[in-house]
Task: structure prediction
Amino acid sequence: MKGNVQKKPQISELGEFGLIEHLTKGIKLINPSSKKGVGDDAAVLEYPDKQIVVTTDLLLEGIHFNLIYTPLKHLGYKAAVVNFSDIYSMNARPKQITVSLGLSKRFALEDVDTLYEGIYLACKNYGVDLIGGDTSASVTGLIISITAIGESGKNDLVYRDGAQINDLICVSGNLGSAYMGLQLLEREKTIYEEDPTTQPDLSGYDYILNRQLKPEARKDIIEILGDLEIKPTSMIDVSDGLSSDLLHICKNSKVGCKIYQDKIPIDQSTIAMVNEFHLDPVIPVLHGGEDYELLFTIPLKLHDKINSLSQVSLIGHICKEEEGRYLITTQGSSIELKAQGWNALKDT
Amino acid sequence: MKGNVQKKPQISELGEFGLIEHLTKGIKLINPSSKKGVGDDAAVLEYPDKQIVVTTDLLLEGIHFNLIYTPLKHLGYKAAVVNFSDIYSMNARPKQITVSLGLSKRFALEDVDTLYEGIYLACKNYGVDLIGGDTSASVTGLIISITAIGESGKNDLVYRDGAQINDLICVSGNLGSAYMGLQLLEREKTIYEEDPTTQPDLSGYDYILNRQLKPEARKDIIEILGDLEIKPTSMIDVSDGLSSDLLHICKNSKVGCKIYQDKIPIDQSTIAMVNEFHLDPVIPVLHGGEDYELLFTIPLKLHDKINSLSQVSLIGHICKEEEGRYLITTQGSSIELKAQGWNALKDT
Result:
């Protein structure tokens, strides 16, 4: 948030209905399943031959985001995309979202427009309709609650509980970069707070900053797997960190796992940042979270098929539950996986 | 909120996943359309021959509710019911909800359990499945975001934009009671704040207090209309006040209206309270809001059919847009309807 917002138009002049009208006036519904959007007591959908998936996320200022270094447009984009990611991780496609906002007095109409620009851009990029929502004043801070609805063919859904012994564990893209982006932003914030005349030095860090501030959901991976007729046995998106999210799969599937540190994909710029911070690289990779990569398991017989994909890494395999859940480090030692992912309830 | 919450179990001991597990462990899905509920990245629904309606509401402490006089169980019940009401006002039936909570430190596990008791009771009473949600810490106050999903037959939905000239305007139950309940609670709060040794005197006011603290959605009216094969031409629930909500119908339908003060149903205990507060009775009736009664229009030819229903009052008729939108008072004067309903964005 920039300091001087007084001269911008005031939301109170519009009122709740006026604001909703203002924010949603240009909407054109693009999905056949979106029958009626904003403007009545409820939106109307129709999914005659599909299964419908529903997910919801609550994002709170001071807990999930810090407006000191998060541009509102990026925040809107990310708020939508993290919900799309949950839909993709069911092997489904996002089609609709509702957006509810709580706005404290310090937000002007222009700010809300900027936030919505990001939401609309995400909707456009992922082919999703904004079909409803709620807008309210808040006592303090910004509140964003998004519910996303998606579709899949009747037998296409992939759950967390289907991993089988000997399945391969796969992950898309690379891990730890969003976490290192956050560390960088936090460091620059601290420097700025100590001396507000300094300018944050963020040049050359575009990749990890983008991963933190403007993540993408792996729509492309779902499409590639579909084209190759690979249906994972289980899948989740890496939002809380590899360790926590892989444990979700293992617990729900009642299996163990073994993953190998040297197989876990990590970007060069992430490694550089890890070194700059003198961190153990295991931390961002296992517990970083917010990468929104897809973590999934496939039968061993699909090894060659999946191995041909440059966007996917094989990082280990599923074993019996009694064999435990371990990371084998580059040095050959075993670390038991623990749910140390980002936990908004413990943070405050 | 009671004062001493320190000795209750702490939510932080459970963590986010533990809390969700704790809150949802007893759930049994009852609707055939609910295929999979809490426990994966998304819930799964199936609606082969139906239209689906989706609505969402964000409730914020200090804006929409005051925990000084709102018991948490009532709050949970109301938070769910107001969403069901939006579904009924589409002439649909609620089937699923997702519940997201933001919890500040002062809430103990017992508090959240009590809130959920109310949500589950509402779900039970209305035949709705809780299928998902999100739980987070909040910096200040309690945040409740609910999305409700409902179903209707393909041609059964009723929108706000179908009112026709000469249609009768109908409302269920009575109006203004929730507003007078709120006035009473606010008065007793002020008295208590001035002298904390006083006990609030709420005896004999059960009806209006219940209307404010534990409203019901008019499921019964939707069932009766269905049984009588009456499909309204337009419908909305009275959440912002008769004036605001009737204006929504008129604006969306591009029509005018005339309603009569002496036809508007008002309960005896509401009148008594209006007199005690020396209020103009037009205020709670037109602008009170939160009654969650159904306001709808039907063709003139259904006059006798609707007139036989004790739960429904005929309060006026739809006219041409150029004739305006007016309340005719008991004294015979005309008051132009204005959207002065409760506006959470202007309040703060």
Notes: Chain B touches chain A through 77 residues (CB under 8 Å). Confidence is low (pLDDT under 50) at residues 1-6, 341-348 of chain B.
